[in-house]
Design a protein that fits this description.
Layout: H1 2-10, H2 13-24, E1 29-32, H3 45-57, E2 62-66, E3 69-73, H4 85-91, H5 100-105, E4 111-120, E5 128-136, H6 142-157, E6 166-176, H7 179-187, H8 194-205, E7 217-218, H9 222-236, H10 252-271, E8 278-279
Antiparallel strand pairs: 1-3, 2-3, 4-5, 4-6, 7-8
Length: 293
């Protein structure tokens, strides 16, 4: 267990597991994103330390710096290998990488999210670890995801370090509804199912509101529904989106500070007691578009 704790602290279980899959050839590559550690480029302290630990643990894998992010693979990559966003998805092995542009060009159409989870045996700090997540135009790639999960389980269980804590690996799919669809559900006072609620919370989280999955939502309360309509509308028409990614801009830190204040204010607003229907559930935040892991 000491080795597992060390991996979790220095590399991260998700990164370690993905590197095992790359080494075994199940994944072509995986991506280290400094933004996940609140940094901008791979040469900053936290990311540099992780890459150094990865090089020591997986010396046979090559680290290719692409635009400040690092591809971990068996072969080197350069900027010329990535001429369009879908190229990165192909390198990382996403079966629906070519859907990327379509999902961007048709934001109001339903989409399918694919999530590969490693479920851990009882006794650790986490119940599961997300190793791969991506968004497709439809669910045609789901069988590929299930095959991937089956093969990944065998590889991870065979590892002498983490194999003992791996229970199984699962692939799940969910239909992602657009913010406009969810806004209409709120406006017409529809009863929201759990999936609709979770998607609303995920959209709110992706506004940079880190505590959004902890707000005490009351989906029956008209005031809360009205606030959610405003937040979803903001997500769908975010005026600062042309300036993304903010970590590359000098104003990024200031935006983070303002967003933190906004987050705390909303926490207080949703905490005001209402008549029933309250909800507080820890949830995994997903990426706004295709998630590169």
């Amino acid at each position: 267990m000491e080795n597992i704790r060390r991996i979790n602290l220095t590399i991260g279980l998700d990164v370690y597991m993905n590197c095992l899959l790359v080494r075994a050839g199940l994944r072509n590559a995986m991506l280290i994103q400094p933004a996940d550690y609140k940094e901008v480029i791979s040469t900053e302290p936290i990311t540099t330390a992780k890459l150094k630990a990865l090089k020591k643990t997986f010396p046979e894998l090559i680290q290719s710096d692409i635009g400040g992010e690092t591809i971990i693979s068996k072969k080197p990559y350069t900027e010329t290998d990535i001429k369009r966003p879908s190229d990165m998805g192909k390198i990382l092995g996403f079966p629906c990488a070519t859907d990327y542009k379509y999902t961007l060009d048709h934001p109001d159409e339903p989409k399918t999210s694919i999530d590969i989870q490693v479920n851990l045996k009882p006794g650790g700090n986490d119940d599961s670890v997300q190793i791969v997540a991506y968004v497709c135009r439809d669910d045609k790639s789901y069988n590929d995801a299930r095959y991937f999960a089956e093969k990944a389980e065998k590889i991870l269980k065979a590892d002498p370090v983490i194999g003992k804590i791996v229970k199984d690996v699962t692939a799940t799919k969910n239909t992602i509804m657009s913010p406009k669809y969810l806004i209409n559900e709120l406006l017409t006072n529809k009863v929201l199912n759990e999936q609709d609620q979770e998607q609303m919370i995920n959209y709110v989280s992706n506004l940079g509101l880190e505590s959004a999955n902890m707000y005490k939502y009351n989906f029956k309360n008209p005031i809360h529904r009205g606030i959610l309509i405003g937040l979803l509308s903001n997500y769908d028409n975010n005026p600062i989106e042309p300036f993304y990614p903010l970590q590359y801009r000098a104003e990024g830190k200031k935006v983070e500070e303002i967003t933190e204040k906004w987050d705390k204010a909303l926490q207080g607003i949703f905490a005001i007691p209402t008549n029933g229907g309250g909800r507080r559930k820890n949830m995994r935040k997903t990426r706004k578009q295709i998630a590169y892991f």
